[in-house]
Specification:
Alpha-Beta Plaits; 3 helices; alpha+beta; 214 residues; 48% helix; rod-shaped
Length: 214
């Protein structure tokens, strides 16, 4: 058997190396590419699931925040427009505000409750309660009183304000008498039951030490 020439041996060696390299590529490297592709697909799928779960979490968080805000708003509305008249509490509040403004709270008259209706006469599901208030004092104090009424927790609508000058007497100085018509609301339909006209008790007057604004 003739020996292969050096050139032939070199060619054979190169061919063997190429075959080994190709075999290594198919047997070792190509499976790694396929595995990497599978891992990449898994990563993409996982990221998609995470994004979906995050979207659900965001919606739940947003809904919870809205629910909390709605609850606060409902409580605020419930204070402004309660289920029942709660007139004793309202009268005390109006009297305290008059005292704080420097006025003398003379009289308060809750009038007949009136079911609220629209232009066609259809019930709106709540009741209006007109109330007349009589207070006396300086003009600036009257202005302050109306401003404070607007800031009450209970929703109060001022319908009208009529003022008249009261001349001084031997025992009292000149004052301005104000008759203020307001309206409050309840969510329930209140039956008509007009209470008698009530004059404010002596405690309704501001303390002797109080100095009304000028």
């Amino acid at each position: 058997m003739n020996r292969l020439s050096t050139q032939s041996q070199l060619i054979i060696a190169v061919v063997v190396i190429v075959v080994i390299a190709v075999a290594a590529t198919f047997l070792l490297i190509m499976p790694q590419f396929d595995k990497a592709s599978q891992i990449s697909a898994q990563i993409t799928d996982t990221e998609s699931q995470i994004a979906q779960q995050q979207a659900v979490l965001d919606r739940r968080t947003s809904a919870k925040a809205r629910a909390a805000e709605n609850q606060v708003e409902l409580l605020h509305i419930a204070n402004q427009v309660p289920e029942g008249p709660e007139l004793p509490t309202l009268i005390v509040d109006l009297q305290d505000v008059a005292n704080a403004a420097g006025l003398t709270f003379t009289q308060i008259q809750p009038n007949e409750p009136v079911p609220a209706v629209d232009a066609a006469g259809k019930s709106l599901g709540y009741t209006r309660i007109p109330i007349s208030i009589v207070v006396t004092g300086d003009w600036a104090d009257h202005v302050e009183y109306v401003r404070k009424i607007d800031k009450l927790t209970r929703g109060v609508r001022v319908l009208s304000c009529d003022y008249a000058y009261v001349a001084p007497t031997e025992t009292e100085g000149a004052v301005i008498k104000g008759v203020i018509e307001i309206e409050v609301y309840t969510m329930s339909i209140v039956q008509s039951s007009r209470p008698s006209s009530a004059s404010a008790p002596a405690t309704a007057s501001p303390p002797a030490s109080a100095t009304p604004s000028q």
